[in-house]
Specification:
Elements (H helix, E strand, L loop, with lengths): L3 H9 L3 H21 L3 H23 L2 H9 L1 H11 L1 H13 L2 H5 L5 H17 L3 E5 L6 H4 L3 E6 L2 H7 L10 E5 L2 E7 L16 H12 L3 E5 L6 E5 L2 E5 L2 H12 L17
Parallel strand pairs: 1-3
Antiparallel strand pairs: 1-5, 2-4, 3-4, 5-6, 6-7
Helix pairs in contact: 3-4, 8-10, 8-12
């Protein structure tokens, strides 16, 4: 039975000012989660919360004294540990808050400019047989990858992307990482695919890197073959060939635009392997 008297006592202490306090704390938590939503820390935080909640439920359900003691007495230590572990993400998040207005901070990332620029640049490089590799960051942060390259931090445009991958240019090797509507870094080193199918074993390093980054994150990568000019797109460790610019645009819009239920889209039915 619920403790009605305790509930009434709690309500009696609730003042009109408490509403402002609850709203203020809720807004801070929301903004912190919103800031961290574009980093790998968000994925790690979800995992930590799952483990913490599992410990709480199991401790209460089976009356595990040691687990209950650790849960009750380790919250402060866990909070300090989280601040230390996620310090780089928190610093980048605060920097993002300082550079972003309220409307942009509360809204979801918009990929229209990224899609237009990648499609136009990929089509041009496909015709000219210039190799390229674009990586579009989504929910999982790619800061570890960005740190391996050269910072660009410029507004995305097809001319900029085509110039970066022009043959023998200083930054044409490896990959370009795009975040929101900006080119964050170029010449970034990506992890190679760990497990490729029999049909993919003849792929070059650029294509293996396009697959590899999608095995570790939810990023979308677009690769242009230097030998054939073919355009392919990778997601979740799967590489799919697209026939032309219009098909590439359709696939990217399908993958990057938000869905009503918030679920991630897949490559099923959007191209041919």
């Amino acid at each position: 039975m619920p403790d009605v008297e305790h509930f009434r006592e709690v309500l009696s202490q609730f003042r009109p000012e408490s509403i402002l306090e609850v709203l203020f704390i809720g807004a801070i938590i929301f903004l912190m989660l919103r800031v961290m939503s574009g980093t790998r820390a968000m994925t790690q935080l979800r995992g930590a919360l799952v483990l913490f909640l599992a410990a709480v439920v199991l401790g209460r359900l089976f009356n595990l004294d040691v687990i209950n003691f650790l849960v009750e007495n380790s919250f402060t230590a866990l909070l300090i540990a989280a601040l230390v572990i996620f310090q780089p993400e928190i610093r980048r998040g605060l920097d993002r808050v300082g550079r972003t207005n309220v409307r942009e901070l509360l809204s979801r990332p918009r990929y229209e400019e990224v899609i237009d620029s990648v499609v136009l640049a990929a089509g041009r490089m496909s015709r000219e047989r210039h190799g390229a590799l674009f990586v579009v960051e989504r929910e999982t942060g790619l800061q570890d990858v960005i740190d391996t390259g050269v910072r660009v931090d410029a507004q995305v445009s097809p001319e900029l992307l085509a110039g970066i991958f022009y043959p023998n240019s200083p930054l044409h090797d490896m990959a370009v990482v795009l975040r929101d509507d900006r080119v964050v870094a170029a010449s970034c080193q990506l992890p190679l695919a760990n497990d490729v199918s029999f049909n993919d074993r003849k792929l070059g390093t650029r294509h293996r890197a396009a697959i590899g980054i999608t095995e570790h994150t939810d990023a979308v990568s677009v690769v242009v073959s230097e030998e054939t000019g073919d355009i392919s797109i990778a997601l979740a460790g799967r590489l799919t060939h697209v026939d032309d610019e219009s098909r590439l645009r359709a696939v990217m819009e399908r993958l990057l635009q938000p869905t009503p239920n918030g679920r991630a889209r897949s490559l099923n039915g959007v191209g041919r392997q």
